[in-house]
Amino acid sequence: QLFNTLFTGREVESKVLLDVFPDLAFSDSAIHRGVVIEGLPFAAMNGRDASGDEDLQILESVIKDRPQTFRPVLLHLCIPEHDLIRRRKLQWIDPVTGNLYSGQQVDYSKRKWREGHNEDGIDAEAAEELLAEEETWNFDVAEQVEPAPSENEDDEAEEAEDGEEEKRPPTRGARKVGEPPSFLLSNKKTWAILTEEVLNRLVRRPEDFENGIIQELRSFAKHVEFIAEFCKKHFDEVHVIDLDASQHPDILARNAVNQLEQIGFSSLIKSSAAKKLEIPESGAKAGSEEEFLTLLASSDLEIKEPPRELSSWGRFCPVTFIEEESLIQASLNYPVCYQGLIYFTNSDTYAEKFISNPDKYLSKPPTVPSLHVCVLGGPFTGKSTQSQMIAKIYGLTLLSLDDILQSWDNLPNQSLLLKQNSVYARIVRTCKEGAAISSEEMIDVLQLHLSNFPSTQGWVLDGFPRTVDDAKALVARELVPQNTIILRNDPLEADPLPDAKSQEPELLTSMPSSPITMFPYFDNLYNGFMEEFTGVMQLLESNDSTPVNIAADQSIPTILSVVQKAVDPFLPKAVAISKKQLSELPEKFEFGFTKDYCPFALRQANILKTGSQEFAAKYLSQYYYLSSEEARTAFLMEPHNFVKFRTPIKPPPPRLFFFGPTGSGKSVCMKSLAQWGAPILQFMNVVDEFAKTAEPEVREEIEYMIRENAGLLSPVIVQDIITMLFVQQPYASKGFILEGFPRTKVEAEVLVKHSLHVDAFVVLKIEPEVAAKRIIAERLREAKNRFHSALNLTQKDASSEAARKQLQESERALTQLDDKQAELMDELMDMIEKENMRVQDVISTVEGTGLAPVIEIDCNRCVRPVIRNLKDRLKPYLDFRMSVFSNALAIGESDAETLIRLGIKSFSPFMKTCPVTLSKHRSPLRRPQGKKPVIYREHIFWLRDNDSREEFMANTQAYVHLPPPKNPAPPKICLLGRPKCGKTELSEKLAAEYDIVHLTVPLILESILSERNNGQLANQVTETLGKGEPIPNELVCEAVAMITSRGVCQARGWVLDGFPRSVADMEALEKYNITPHVIVELVQNGAEMMNRQQRTMLADLQSEGTTFNFPEIILENDSLHMLEIGGIRSYYQSVYENWVQVDCTKSKWALKSSLKSIIEANSDRRQNYLYLRTKGYYSLIKIGELVQAPVGTKYTAEYQNSFYRMAGEAELQTFLETPDKYTAGPDLPEDLPIRRDSSVLVFPRQLELQGYCPVTLVEGPPGFDSIVQGDLKYLVEYEGKLFAMESQEKLDKFMRTPWDFSGAVLPKKLPPKVIPIPVSQMPMIGYLEHTVAKALTEGLSAVGRARPKHPFMDLTSSASEYLAIYLKAHNIKAKPWVRKAYETRLRKFEARSSLIQAITAETRGNGYIPPVKRSTGFNLAIDSFFALTPEKYQV
After folding, report:
1. How far apart are CA 1185 and CA 1347, in angstroms?
2. Residue 1122, class by beta-carbon neighbours within 10 Å (0-12 exposed, 13-18 middle, 19+ buried)?
3. N or C of the chain: less Cβ packing under 10 Å?
4. Cα 609 from chain centroid?
């Protein structure tokens, strides 16, 4: 219809397009990929009137009826009307293709062709601008990472040969922190060059003439109100993105993508496409099915695409399962590929449906429909247990005759049951007659029970049929099971599958087995079962029931796994992998959840045992290495029991063996590992611990071997001792670090023979000469210490004979050691050489066995670098223990992009942000981009550089669980302040620090002027400057609005230096909807401003440059600033609360740090807000209470375009979890309690309840105690009534729930009212009692206690002076600093009053004391006393 209409040259009716629009918007392809709706409302866009705004109504219906996964976003393209008219007048159209071209692109193309552009050449101007554009839109900033301090600062001094740390170059293409950024603020000037052929056929459209454009704009204006209402109804302010449409299309597109990323729409996440797979010309029947699948897996692969695999659907069609709700095996002729997996569909139509929206058909996992299973087996085979588990897993009806009959028999009203249940009544009669229940009656019971469940629900029979007659009855009633599970437990023919008892590690075989008690009638029961079993199975098999034979002596999970594999074709299965298949894999491939460790050994013995390539298996597209054929068989049987998917597998505790020759520093090295919590043991101490609990014979043998055989034990005892460390607490849970084992080759052979696997063997290697010197030095140190101790003891007690003897012995030992150093050196070197040979024998024994890796540590160096090297080598086993199973795989960038594009792998929650760098510098304004991809599980992580990638791969678990970065929230900052406060310098530093745009008014105008051919504003600015006139504030504000709306400013954020300058500027910014996130006022006093002016002017004059820093100019600018700043501050503080004052007289580092904290905190809050809005979470008012929330937006949330203010953090979080619970409740009451003061008590208004407190009246005890007069300080108005509360506590209660107290009623009998008497009208004694009595009493008491006598004052004067000072020091109505001053004066008075007593105490009984014999304190007292003579003393 459309084609015919267009072919005849007629106009397509709008109704035709509107009818198909919803179908297109909700098509499978649109739902899978998302949709961009453009062109509605087309009637308004094209200057035509649509009756009833039908196009807008269609658009509204599309938004309202959208799928739940759709989050609508409105991109609002904004452009001034005069610029739009100008653009439309200059645009051209290609009549052949219908493409529109702007006048700028056409003019640029013509100019380039005039300049001799070559069609095959490169546009140098465009290439240069493209480089600047890429730099502008490159958000990566090189981090300046300070090298971490070493644990020991003097390592470099001890190890000078280590050299200096290599300085790593910054990431290529990234700016360094602190480097001033330079961004393109002006519009892009280059365009794609049109061919001469296209230029020659361009024409103008009639509707692009000015009259037609104006007519369209007028028509559009008629729909503006409807469009605005539509936007307000369906879009909140977060999901409306205003874009400056005057920008170049390339920049506009970048801007739109960036703005979408800020609200959670990442351009990196795209829907992967499905595609059809070509089958061979000979068709799917040319070879076997396996060959055909192999061909599909590798045919038509893209570059870097890995071979495809068959999906979990197998041969079943997912489209049929969703569309027809049936599970049918598909034809091999219609294969499709999606996210690296192969699916089969039933027809070409179904293949097209799958390709249009594969997620629709894969949203529901395949399930086996209506399973019919019976479980048979001899006595004690676990039939009922397996039946119950199968029924629970697959949602089947459990049919157990015993349980059904027992449940009927347990019902209390048996008479009613016998009337309603004829089957049960017949069985009861049969049992009363003493007859057996027939097979038909049993089937009746089963069918009656099945009738209570849907016919589509499957069932599982527990232990039925038991006889051939039962089986015949089942067949006759068409209740034949699809699968018959047979649990065999014939003791004569038992052939158990591999179990832990017959496999490595042998430490499991040492566990005691539980005694087995045979059932006394087992043989009779078993023989009875077998008599009928053969006939039952023949009958069932002849009716297409598939038997599944399972040995019943296996574990319950193993039996269940075999059952599931037999009945569930969709259960993921593990397959064995041959060496040939392994050789065809890439050099690096993805291991499973246990890396290259054997999952069987991990589960059975909780040990790390490296698997072998000979016993490889594949499960869920991942590879596992097993340690033996028996282990692989067990893994293939029940792989899901060896692998955890939801949580990372917890590694076993660390187990390390340390050995080396004497003098290698084993003890020192092991002490340095104590921080990881594993017990540090010495082998001989472990032997002693083992001997204490061993049998007497074993204990005697150990003592003998230690005494007579140099401590070397028999292999059996060695095995028992080491096994104890694996199974006995606390070593089984905490692990161990064992020093001095294995000591000999025999002990190492014990480990190999019995598969006692540890994490690693740590060998401390050292040269004999170095070790001998260490030993001698240690012995000399000990001998000297003993000598000095004996010497000190002798000096303290010279008469002690024992001390002298000890000194002589220690001196003799020290002398002998000095004399025999050479001889001792040779002896020690020979001993260590022998020990080195034994160590080498141990290494040779364990190497190549796969028992554990051998880590050799060179101990010839000094201690600190040896310990550092040891810790570095042991990081995988200690520091990075939780990542021991993490198998991160480094890949190339192109490989990663291919895997993501095909949907085989996905971006991690970090997207392209480096998690390692983010963990070290977590700032809301940092976006450290990664360039080195790593595969981990189903995700790809991007790391910043090779060092970060190596760190991530070594300790993956430390980073994958970090909270991902939130959506970027570029800051908008204004810096204001008096002249010379450092606005410009600080703005530049902030711009460099956060890679944001630094804006000044001159820079903004310069950017506008560079676009004088692109807009009316540029022309107006040029015209104004040409006249020599100042640029009006209106034009400046319009320029600021235009530049801040540019893509680079919206994407990066900006810091505006020194603007707004006046209240008029501020109002203009509000007009253009520009609201800074933070406005920083740099505060300084006038003196500091002029000091800075003088320094700056002097520096300018010395440099012989032009200066404008004259005092007159600075003072004039300052006066203008002070005149306007109050209004600006008041507005932003009251409306947005975004005003911050910072003292700029602090150091520049402190100032910068303070501002960074403010800006980052603000950005973090906005990121949280955007995160909540874009994720669908929003905002708690305490239910049933009115809680006055604190002022500000700290605890404010927004939900459905409304703001809610909470009482605190806890209430906010509760609201965010379930906003509907609190917003859908009752509205806020119309009457709210309001605080009032006593001024409202003007006749005829009076207090309710005669002024008594309503809260005390309701909550108080019975009687007059609850009738308490209220205080006018706590006055509240509620429902037009005034209430007075007793206290602040009662006031708070009333404000929360006024409805609980406002209805209180006074009793008829009231206590006598307290009538206040003015204090001024009281008698003299009462007046004094209520005014000065308390203060005077306390003061007089203090005088009595102190009894002061001041030098040169009589007692009356001293007491009066003391009382006066005391009253002033304790006047509660005085200001604190006044009281503090008099407190100091009171202490001085008390000190001076004590001088007489001090002098008297010193001279009593001694008479006159000459100056030379006086103490220092006495002299000071005498001097202080005479200093207080009347002529010098001042009160």
Report:
1. 59
2. exposed
3. N
4. 33
